Amino acid sequence: MSKDKTVFQCQGCGYSSPKWIGKCPDCGAWNSFAEEKLSPKSLKSGNWQSTSSEAQPLSAVAGGREKRIPIGIAELDRVLGGGLVAGAVILIGGDPGIGKSTLILQAVGRIAGKIGSVLYVSGEESPEQIKLRAERLGINSDAIILLPETLVENITVAAQGMKSAAMVIDSIQTIYTEELTSAPGSVGQIRESAARLMMFAKKNHVPIFLIGHVTKDGAIAGPRVLEHMVDTVLYFEGDRGHPYRILRTIKNRFGSTNEIGVFEMGDDGLREINNPSELFLSERPLNVSGSTVIASMEGTRPLLVEIQALVSPTTFGMPRRTSMGIDFNRVNLLIAVLEKKAGIHLGAMDVFINIVGGFKVIEPAADLGIISAIMSSFREVPIDSKTFLFGEAGLSGEVRAVAQAEHRLREAAKLGFTHAVIPKGNADRLKNDFGLQISGIKNVEELIDRLRA
């Protein structure tokens, strides 16, 4: 009689070892190995999904663009690339209480009224809890079918029987299969359950939303292979101290991977923010030092956000460097450029950088804004409130051109800005100045002279 096989698997990346080890040789995580038992039936991988397929030349495959179904929530449709695609598997992650279930329930309420019934599988909450949330959001539809179930075989059978137009799994960490003896939430269970749901979605052309937990580091819990298996990965970001929420695309096989959706959390759920630039600048202080505005791009959307800097003499032997919403190492690099190329000595100063509104900027076009804010705070000289900046700074002090300059200028002109400080490379190639005074600069020294004037 065959016995179950025992292996130890890393709960971060899925690496398997015949014995317990302290550090994962694949992802480097410490104390991440857990014992899992594999039944003989589960060792025969692929039996449940074995199908007979015929090879065919690429020219024989039916072409055409994928048909999209708009959900009706503009910000969610934006990050999905225009709407739902039949058979797509969408993974949504975020911190506990950030609003993942609220967003999905609002989306389900729109889908149920347009394309048919939606199967909402809840492995954590009871139907009564979901009903309470739905009443708060003003959702009440017979087309939303609640199924409190965690066994993946039962879920696929129920979905097959009711021919649902879409599915929601809340959450993937609670789903398991009987073919594995390990506990729900383990690497094997998450990987196997997600694979079965993915095959069901592709075979029946049913879009599936998977809600995932996140670890203390902010990554979606479970093996990284889970993110590779699905078609779209969305992260729901936000600060509990701010009502704003950002839905960011990390992966999308059907659209751009740089799009974001902006929402505001209220008593009646998430509200779309159609003009996030105006929102982020609504409480901006005027004529104060250390504050400036940058024009950033998130996918196809230009955003104007405020950068604040505070430079003050340090009271400790080692000066502090703190950044929120911007890469810490990038800030240190720009401080070094300021000291070396512009002669601004910050060795005895604490430097604090903050992107207002809980927003995160990841593109290097924010470099000029960071440098300007630091210089303004250091010299106690305010920057004109109608001036905005964008551009990348190199280690030699040069200012490099960035992409989509005209989109940034057009957005700033709409919001009433009059002066743009941009890289000279961008200024020389402009076809339209949108009524703005354009200052093209080649290096950091020119930037400081321009703002000083």
Keywords:
453 residues; alpha/beta; Rossmann fold; Ribosomal Protein S5, domain 2; 3 domains; seven-stranded mixed beta sheet
Summarize this structure briefly:
The chain has 453 residues and is α/β, with parallel strands linked by helices.
Describe the structure.
The chain has 453 residues and is of the alpha/beta class. It folds into three domains: 5-40; 68-274, P-loop containing nucleotide triphosphate hydrolases (Rossmann fold); 279-452, Ribosomal Protein S5, domain 2 (2-Layer Sandwich), CATH 3.30.230. Helix content is 28%, strand content 26%. The protein contains 13 helices and 23 strands. It has helices spanning 40-43, 74-80, 100-112, 127-137, 152-162, 187-204, 225-229, 276-280, 328-342, 367-379, 405-414, 424-428, 444-452, and strands at residues 5-10, 16-17, 33-38, 68-69, 84-85, 89-94, 118-122, 144-147, 166-170, 208-212, 232-238, 244-252, 260-266, 269-272, 291-298, 301-313, 321-324, 349-355, 387-389, 392-393, 399-400, 419-423, 437-441. A nine-stranded mixed beta sheet has the order 8-7-9-10-6-11-12-13-14. A seven-stranded mixed beta sheet has the order 17-18-16-15-19-22-23. A hairpin with a 2-residue loop joins strand 13 and strand 14. The longest helix is centred in the middle third of the chain and has 18 residues, at 187-204. The radius of gyration is 26 Å and the shape is globular. The chain starts with a strand and ends with a helix. Residues 42-50 have low confidence and may be disordered.
